[in-house]
Amino acid sequence: MSVLQRFEKRLEGLVEGAFAKVFKGVVHPVEILNAMQREAEAHKAILAGGRTLVPNRYVIDLSPYDHSRLAPYAAALAQELAQSQAEFIGEQAWTVYGDVIVEIERGDGLDTGMFRVTAEVYTGGDVAPVQPAYEAQPGYPGYDQHAAYPGAPMQGGPARNARLVSGDGRTYPLAIGSTVIGRGDQANLRLPDVGISRRHARLDFDGAQVVLTDLGSTNGTMVNGQRVSAVALNPGDMIQLGTTTLTFRVDG
Length: 252
Fold this sequence. Notes:
This protein is 22% helix and 29% strand. It is α+β, with helices and mostly antiparallel strands.
């Protein structure tokens, strides 16, 4: 039985026989799961050792009508979507940063039957999950006991000193955890560049490796001249946001 078939089976139990009635005329959860799978495929990043990192946090924006119809099932539906996405990721032998998280939100401006899926690599830093998470279990083909923090130092190895250096020589040390780059008040690292979005990109540092994730910025994020969604950085990588260029450096 495929992931989609198992998902549909669980949905039938979820709504206690009212499956056809509940989802008639509104966006179907199977369409959402299909879109989540496509997002994972589109945002793959290759880590050291050849592992493939994909997003683990998925925000589903539903139209106001669809959101109100599905509201009684939102928490349970989010959990089922997270479980099915974790199964899909496992079957592909991909890696995630810990849990697969799904959040269902109201998307004002969306027409009935329309929805939007936003995917990102989430490490628990600056955005609090509001829906249940499903943890990938040992036994999945893609499960890795060290996957929660790819490249993390084993046996208490020393943390590395990571920093960004701008073209004019300014240095921005990276703390362990998440650092949001942008020009808005919510950014940890604010850059006065009109080509940079208010929340442009995020750097997740676990003490050994830094993963750069574009946060849906208007002009995109470039690493060594290539547009990226999420990528593990290597020393010397050139990051371009707007007209600003930052070089990734590591000591230790």
